[in-house]
Design goal:
- By secondary structure, the chain is mainly alpha-helical.
- It has one domain: Hypothetical Protein Ta1238, Chain: A (Up-down Bundle), CATH 1.20.1200.10.
- The protein is 61% helix and 3% strand.
- The N and C termini lie far apart (52 Å).
Length: 180
């Protein structure tokens, strides 16, 4: 299989099931944002040395492929065809458990904090903003087409986790947070 097909040369792309749409379609923008989020997470995984966080982020990258697959499926049935494309409420609770695990060792927030800190902390803050953008695109898409509410909940919780991981990375690096 060649990497190029020439099918997109006129500004269209194929969705799961074969339907062709403009590359500027909101659905394509939504899963494109998820793809960007996944790529930035890969960058962070390359920088991290903590194997626990690396393993958590690897699973999240797999989850994001599942989210992208669901967003690229106008029929809404891709989850029925391949188990790995599903995101469950249990998975959202798992993200909450990871947040709670890190929150337990972080100082309580008393003010907004400026994004930044260590290289990994700053990258995690950047990734959080990419995640929020993806969430906004998904919410916009959900106004036109039915989306599983768990997808939006997952992405919302993921942005909370990324914020918490940024704080944890800065704590690990010995860098104090700067309040706003």
């Amino acid at each position: 299989m060649k990497i190029y097909t020439r099918k997109g040369d006129k500004g269209e792309t194929g969705l799961i099931g074969g339907k062709r749409v403009l590359k500027s379609a909101l659905r394509v923008e939504a899963y494109g944002e998820i793809d960007e989020l996944n790529a930035v997470l890969g960058w962070i995984r390359a920088k991290l040395t903590d194997e626990t966080i690396r393993a958590d982020l690897l699973q999240i990258q797999r989850d994001l492929f599942a989210v992208g697959a669901q967003l690229a499926d106008p029929s809404g049935h891709v989850e029925e065809k391949a188990e790995k494309t599903g995101i469950s409420e249990g998975r959202v609770r798992e993200l909450e458990g990871i947040i709670d695990r890190y929150d337990a060792v972080l100082s309580p927030l008393r003010a907004f904090i400026l994004p930044g800190g260590s290289e990994c902390g700053a990258l995690l803050h950047l990734t959080r903003t990419v995640c929020r953008r993806a969430e906004r695109r998904m919410v916009a898409l959900s106004q036109d087409v039915p989306l599983s509410p768990v997808l939006i909940a997952y992405i919302n919780r993921l942005s909370d986790l990324l914020f918490t991981l940024a704080r944890a990375a800065n704590r690990e690096a010995g860098i104090e947070e700067i309040p706003w």
